[in-house]
Specification:
About 65% of the residues lie in helices and about 5% in strands. The protein has 4 helices and 2 strands, in the order H-H-H-E-E-H. The two termini are about 25 Å apart. About 15% of the residues are buried. Keywords: Cell membrane, Electron transport, Heme, Iron, Membrane, Metal-binding, Transmembrane, Transmembrane helix, Transport.
Length: about 180
């Protein structure tokens, strides 16, 4: 039995991690740039979101084929249950956030860009839908800070306090 996730799973995990950082930074720091740079910053944010969505769906499909390697030593059932809940929240968050963002951008009714390409949009704007989706998008993004923090804290707790292999299962292989 494997003691680590597959190379593909590890790569997707850390790539999503980096894309999440860039997406969050694009929104958090956009006020530091001149207004003329906003379209580029928005495009970076949207492009990261689309990439995260594709990678999370891929990761979910790969996870169905390659289940998680066992944690050694095995934690208490309660911790395993909390781990499953945490991972479910992460999958839901990073699939729902980009989907909500995409539907929101579409309903603005004007040209928007991802990866430098103009994306399709509704013939007419629907700002009731846009405002509702934006509030959900912002709320979930703020919840993301909390969920990501708990996820990272739990990984460190497993590694340094319980001294199991939870964190090591997701670390890239060392080159010899």
């Amino acid at each position: 039995m494997r003691n680590k996730y597959t190379g593909l799973q590890i790569s997707i995990h850390w790539l999503v991690f980096l894309l999440v950082i860039v997406a969050y930074c694009a929104m958090e720091f956009r006020g530091l740039f001149p207004r003329s740079a906003r379209p580029v910053i928005n495009m970076v944010h949207v492009s990261c979101g689309i990439s995260i969505l594709v990678l999370m769906v891929t990761r979910l499909l790969v996870r169905l084929k390659y289940p998680a390697p066992p944690i050694v030593p095995k934690p208490k059932s309660m911790y395993i249950g909390l781990s499953h809940l945490g991972h479910l929240l992460i999958y839901l968050l990073f699939i729902a956030l980009p989907l909500i963002g995409l539907v929101m951008m579409y309903n603005r009714g004007n040209t928007w860009f991802a990866f430098g390409l103009g994306m399709p949009h509704a013939a007419e704007s629907n700002f009731e839908v846009v405002d509702l989706l934006k509030s959900w998008h912002v709320t979930l993004a703020k919840a993301g800070y909390f969920i990501i923090g708990i996820h990272a804290f739990a990984a460190l707790l497993h590694h340094y306090y319980w001294k199991d292999n939870t964190l090591l299962r997701m670390m890239p292989k060392k080159r010899s």
